[in-house]
Structure formats: structure tokens, C-alpha cells
Amino acid sequence: MAEFGRQRGKRQEDGGLGSVLDLLLANARLVLGVTGAAVLAIATLAVKRLIDRATSPRDEGDPKAEQKTLEESWQDLALIKATPKPPKKQRREDLSEPLLSLARPPVPGEDREPRVCSAPPETPRVESSPPRCLTLQEKLLSHYNSRLAVPEVQASLAPQLARSICTQLQNFLRNKCPELPFGSLFLSGPLLDGLEALTVDHIHLMLPVVLDAALWSLIPGEDTVVRNPQYWMIKRTDLEYFPRGCSPWDRFIVGQYLSSNALNEALHKMLVASVNWPAIGSLLGSVIHPVVASQELRLEVKHDQVEMSITLFPVVEMEDKVLLAAPPEGLVENLWLESFYRAEVSKVKELDAGDSGARRHCLRILNGVCKSHPALHKLSGSPLTHVVLHLSATSLDWAEESLADRFQQVLEELVGYLEKGVLPSYFNRKINLFCELLEEEIDEMGFMLYRAVSEPELLLKEK
């Protein structure tokens, strides 16, 4: 009896559960539609079978029955997972209408028109292509064409304006100092020669100092007080036969040497106090003023379309040397710096013309990167040019297609030179172009370039 009561109770529970499930399935078609009801029926059947097996008495100790029950359970779970998902409901146009409005019985006398829910227009799918990874070659050419390009107006106006200032300054010197044999002023710099980044913000104005070779001679840099082969001294000779005053430049002698400092100071006073820059600027449609506090002979020029800085360099050419009145900082005032700029430009252009190379492209990019980077700005100019010239002796392929390879190779060469702390001049291996760099500066540059060797794109990012 007890067993029968348990079975009867179980049947009643099963019947109650079945009634609930049947009621749910009966109303499922009304609420969910045909497809939704089918989905719910399959899932409900599987769940019901799981419940039946869980509540039915197990055959203890019968491994076959346990294995069969386990298999049926996995089949039911697979059935639930494989049940197709119901289609998404269309968006209701009227949000105030309840979900079960379609099941509401019609009201007598009410005109019911079938409500047509138009599906929203499908937005055409646009296949988004994955972002394209640019090669280093493409990044370098893009950097060259976008960031190193100079607007055409500025590229033509800046040299024209600088030449006009050059002419005005030449006339002033001839009128103010007719006894001093200055040569004809001429322009120099990246904008005209094309080795460095093409910018119009800085132009060099070269002022030739014409010396009589019979009265002057050059003292090699190794024999000077700084023991630097890149600096020279210009000595006045034969004073016993040609005493002071025989040369118009004798007024700038300190000891027996032509002082670059004395000449710069005299020119600085004239530029600041004697030249009528407001009148010249008005004539040229610009505002021109000399930089008073600078040790350099520098003019700042502001025009409506361009702003630039012009630096004046007295230059002596003797015995195939080009010497600038640019002494090192300190107490030494008679030294003249040997410049290789003219030889650098000539050699690079000669090499590029011989093999249709891209050395100038590479140098412009390198100079632009170094000038804009606070840790690398002292590498711009001559050091980079000499590295490229050294590399040209061993790497012969400088075609534009090899620009990325040569660019990365220059970085590797620079790291090697910085590790040694020595970059020999291409034209005079006694000269170390890193001699004026501090150890901390060399370490910082080396660390930055060491990272850039493996990831050159670091140097091309915006600062």
C-alpha cells in the first residue's frame, strides 16, 4: 500500500507537471507564433525527459542502465543546444501598443484593418577592409612628401627676400668700410643646396674676407692651443718687412693672428647700431631686426608669408681651405673653423648623379628627424652627411627602392660611431666630428638610435 501510494503520488505530480507543460505549449503558439512554439516544445520535451529520469527509481548496481541514462542525458542536452534560434522580432513602430495586442478579441463595431508592419530598410553592408600596414619605405616617402615639403610661395619668396637683404647689406658695407676688401656676399644653406630638411626658417649669408696670401698664412689646428685639427689660425707674416697697416685687416689682429672674435664684434656693432633696418624692411615689405644678445651675426626677418633667420658668416678661403669666423665657446678668440659644407654638397651630388641615388632624399629625412628631436638635434648637418659619405664607400646600392635599407643602415652606423665616441671626417680622418659632444649627450643619442634601429618608425612619429 505504501508503495502504491508513492507511485500514485508520483503520477499525480507527473500529471500536474504535465498539465502545466501542456497549458504552456497550448498558449505558446498564440504568444510566440508557430516557430517559437516549436522551439519551446522541443526544449520542454527535453527538460521533461531529464526530470523524469531524475525522479524515476534507479536500478542500483546496474551499469548498463546507468550507461543508458547517461547517454540519453547527453542526447537531450545536444537536442537543446541544437534547437534553432527563433528569428528576431521586427521592431514595433508604435511602442505604445502592447505585445499581445494581436491576441485581443475584436470589439463589435470596430473597423479592424490588418496592420502591416513594414520591415525597416536594410542598410547595405560595407565590407570594411583591414587597415593596410605601410612598409618602412612607404612611410619614409610619405614623411618626405608631407612633412619636408615647403609651400611653393615660401620656397620662391624666401631666397628672393634673402638676396634683396644681401644686396642692401653689401651696399652698406661698401659705403661704410670702403677700405676693407670684402668679397661679394652670397647665400648658402639647405634651401639652396638641398642636403638638409627643406625649411625656409634659416639661411646662411656668407661674407668673403679677401686676404693677401703674401701677408697671411695658415697655422694647422694641431698646432693651435685647442689641439683640434678642425680649427685653424691665420697668422700675419713678414711684419719686419711689411709692418702693421700694410694690410687693411691688421686692425683685427690680436697678437700676430687675425682674430675671428674681433671681426665679429665689429660687424655686430655695425649691424645693430649703423644699419637702418627699418628703412630696408619697409622697402622690402618686411620687418628686419638684428639679434642683439646673440654671439652670432643674426637677423630675424618677418614677412606676411614667411619668417626666417639669416646668419652672417665672415669666411676666408686660403690654400684650398674654407674657414668660418665661428670660434669655439670659451676664452680662445683667434680660431677659425674649417667648413666642409661646400665639399659635402659637391660630393653627395656627384655620387647621386653617378648612380641615380637617393642620398639627398635620405639626408633630408635624417636631418628633418634629428632637428625636430630634442635628443638628436646636434647630429643634424655635417655629422649625418659624413656618415652617408662613409657608407657610400661600402654600400653601392642607393637607388630610391633601397631608401629604407640605407636609412636603417645609416642608423646602425651612427650607433657604432656613438659607441666609440668618434666620427671621423670624410675629408680629414684626423677630425672627430663628435669631439664637442658631452658624454651624457652621446649616451642619450646612442640609446635613442639603438631603439630606432629595430623600430625606425619611432623617429617618424610626431613630436
UniProtKB/TrEMBL annotation:
<keyword id="KW-0496">Mitochondrion</keyword>
<dbReference type="GO" id="GO:0007005">
    <property type="term" value="P:mitochondrion organization"/>
</dbReference>
<feature type="region of interest" description="Disordered">
    <location>
        <begin position="78"/>
        <end position="131"/>
    </location>
</feature>
<protein>
    <submittedName>
        <fullName>MID49 protein</fullName>
    </submittedName>
</protein>
<dbReference type="InterPro" id="IPR049097">
    <property type="entry name" value="MID51-like_C"/>
</dbReference>
<dbReference type="GO" id="GO:0090141">
    <property type="term" value="P:positive regulation of mitochondrial fission"/>
</dbReference>
<keyword id="KW-0812">Transmembrane</keyword>
<dbReference type="GO" id="GO:0005741">
    <property type="term" value="C:mitochondrial outer membrane"/>
</dbReference>
<dbReference type="InterPro" id="IPR046906">
    <property type="entry name" value="Mab-21_HhH/H2TH-like"/>
</dbReference>
<feature type="domain" description="Mab-21-like HhH/H2TH-like">
    <location>
        <begin position="359"/>
        <end position="445"/>
    </location>
</feature>
<dbReference type="Pfam" id="PF21297">
    <property type="entry name" value="MID51-like_C"/>
</dbReference>
<keyword id="KW-1000">Mitochondrion outer membrane</keyword>
<dbReference type="Pfam" id="PF20266">
    <property type="entry name" value="Mab-21_C"/>
</dbReference>
<feature type="domain" description="Mitochondrial dynamics protein MID51-like C-terminal">
    <location>
        <begin position="156"/>
        <end position="344"/>
    </location>
</feature>
<keyword id="KW-0472">Membrane</keyword>
<keyword id="KW-1133">Transmembrane helix</keyword>
<dbReference type="InterPro" id="IPR045909">
    <property type="entry name" value="MID49/MID51"/>
</dbReference>
<dbReference type="InterPro" id="IPR024810">
    <property type="entry name" value="MAB21L/cGLR"/>
</dbReference>
